[in-house]
Specification:
The chain contains 46 helices and 28 strands. By secondary structure, it is of the alpha/beta class. The termini are far apart.
Length: 965
Amino acid sequence: MIQNTVLKQLHNSLSGDVLFDNLHKTLYATDASVYRKIPLAVAFPKNDKDLKTLIEFAKKNNTTLIPRTAGTSLAGQCVGDGIVVDVSKHFTKIISFDAVNKTVTLQPGVVRDSLNVYLKEFGLFFGPNTSTSNRCMIGGMVGNNSSGSTSIKYGVTRDKVLEIKTILSDGSSATFNEITSDEFLEKIKENTQEGKIYRAIYSELSQIENQKEIKKEFPKETIHRRNTGYAVDEFLSSDLFGGTESTINIAKFLSGSEGTLAFSTSITLQLDDLPPTESIMVCTHFKSVNESLIATVTAMNHNLYNCELMDKTILDCTKNNRDLAKNRFFLKGDPEAVLMLEVSANSLDKAEVLADNLIKDLEKNNLGYHHPKVYGKDIAKVHYLRKAGLGALGNMIGDMKAVACIEDTAVALEDLPNYIEEFTQIMSKYKQNAVYYAHAGAGELHLRPILNLKKKADVVLFRKITTETAKLVKKYKGSFSGEHGDGIVRAEFIPLMIGEKNYQLLRRIKKAFDPDNIFNKGKITDAFSMDENLRYEIDRDEPEIKTIQDFSDSEGILKLAEKCNGSGDCRKPVEAGGTMCPSYRATKDEKDTTRARANTLREFLTNSKEANKFNHKELKEVFDLCLSCKACASECPSNVDIATMKAEFLYQYQETNGYSFRSKLFAENVKYNKLGSIVPSLTNAILNTPFAKAAMGVAKERTVPKLAKSTLKKWYKKQPITKHKKTVYLFCDEFTNFYDVEIGKDAYYLLDKLGYNLKIVNHEESGRSYISKGFLKQAKAVCNFNVTIFKDIITEKTPLIGIEPSAILTFRDEYIRLADDKKSAEKIAKNVFTFEEFLAKELENKKFDTNVFTNKTKTLKVHGHCHQKALSGTHASFQILNIPKNYNVTIINSGCCGMAGSFGYEKEHYQISMQVGEDTLFPKIRNTPKETEIAAAGTSCRHQIYDGTKRIAKHPITILKEALS
């Protein structure tokens, strides 16, 4: 047992960090697989010297190093009980780029899509394209020999690897690249660790018997996706080992070795020219999966750039995800399977000919019943839907999940229909309706049984199905791992797949590279058992977690946390677009991801011995930088709504540990604003003094929002009664009522001009401040009051509309979880709209005269509020701001502003808040011409934009009111 004092000494010896606290060990106990092992520690090396120190430590202390980048591995490659070495934070540089030879050299922590953003201006890209491409990193892709949807055209990662610089098990450095056979023979003579490796390879592979055994047992050569064990078959093309090629490259052998042989520090890749400029995707619908596979053989005769499959199970999982549902536009009816067939050419006319020929061929063979063509930017939406399939499987409610164990099988394309037919028979025997999706054109489908791995019977089935499928793959001389690697789930089947003699050969090669087994122990050789160390304890007594919010839609808060399958969508960088996850984007720490928060909550709710299972400082730490932006509620394919879980955590934790003065101050802001509004000028002067800010725990750099001279409710009572035919109710939220009164007035004047009576009734605040600070008893009381007030007056003809997105959208979100009268809350929610949504709906139905608006020219940029983007969308803002015929409107792809209500005012969060703004929004605002107006519906957003850029943003309501002619 290695003591913490020894780990502390290791930490002090590195430029980077070694963390061994309970929180970080919890975070790194899982990846995207079904496995869980608590590591000894987590290391964040900054340079090669740190890596050498870690290797020396592992050797001396008989432990293992588990390399990790994004941690999206499906087979358990990143799970182990040694030291997890996370290079995703510091090994992120593009070292050099050669445009002439079309190569790039980089560190292993460079994100695949970020690399391609860098390369785009040079007309080049890195071809292998996994479903996780917007967060997976090149080191992980090399470790797994990843391929993805483009492999039918651009090959797999191994094809692109030219050189890998490594640190070997003795701490020495070695560079592996293409060398001649003569140079290889010279390497054998070296009295170094590198020399030992070359001697071992030569000794093993030069034996005719071994060459024959490899050819006999390894997958068919026509199967390009082959990741079972080590790629010793790659060596057989060399003239040293019975082949004809006079060069050899061990770097290609390292691709797919899962970090078990050496530690990579830099990688040189061969790049490809960008694909043709024009593409068309034919999304053919089928009545059965088997029909789609038969069609695949026909379709692959058409020089496709993509040939991907989604089955009904995956498609159904995308229905209830806000972000994915909008990408289902190409679907007609309820197909059992859809093939996404992409053709490309340098002109649209040529692409049309290719697409039409493809469709004609399918129709001639009576394959498919609907062949819609998708163009332009819509193709990316279809790709996004397919890529999100992995995460969307987490959307399955309850404990039955689509399990990764046989999801990576690859067979020759001509064998695929028969293979799947036999596979389906296996599934039928076990009463399974498996999931079928992914790379049909490459002969690889991601097949998943649906199991409950909390139950012993299904864990037994887990092994049985995996074993029978392995035997079936062997029958077709396929590869049990096409691109996801062996990891834990498949490694113990390697002897079956390639024969015992070849397996022993792999063990000897592993021994030559890594005699002390310090590199990723338990993977590929001498494997961990595939049905042990699972994420959940088998046949456990399910924890009963009482919550104040209603989590019945996920069968409880614990199962909502368990919906996170580790796919890591929350690690996507800024350039990937979207909002999730702003805190991770600012810190680049795994601790600050949606995944980390879900995993930590799951861990403690499951294993805590405390009377209050939420009462853990680790949970407080992991939730601290969550901005409650709700991006995860829509952008996470599994809909892991961390903001809602954070509110519950804060409530439960504070019920035991008490509520701080500052939290009370922010949560009870309505009460204090009522007092402050008696003499608003004095209140404003006092609150903006350094003394007051310090007392409140507010950052000195912030300007505290100023109370208006009168509240909106007081002003409204003085207005004459209008007598229009149409009536709407305005939710006078606490922000508009006390601070943004002028916007409330603009809303009144605008609606009056458009022919609507605007009514404000005696309702309570929204409860947003209570919710964000975890004062859920108070939030529940407010919710119940408002539901009672509105349940009999809000209808389709008399809707409730709101100015501040975070306030009005509580009716559609948190109120459903908090209300005692849930039926009435749901009824109200159907007729609750943001101001923009309401006007856009009325515009579409031609309910008002657009000629009342100006003909003047104006350019507008719109920043969407996070809750608006997650629960509503920004399209309505775009629609209504385009009502004035000469307004030019653009939605800024801006992510989160960083303010997040009180978060950005809190002194300890100020720097992170501003960093979030700098990640996307602030630079885009600064680059906007001064004459361009900025629109932002959120009050926090407008304050943050001013603090970060000194630009004044207006609510869309104000912009439209000013546009009245």
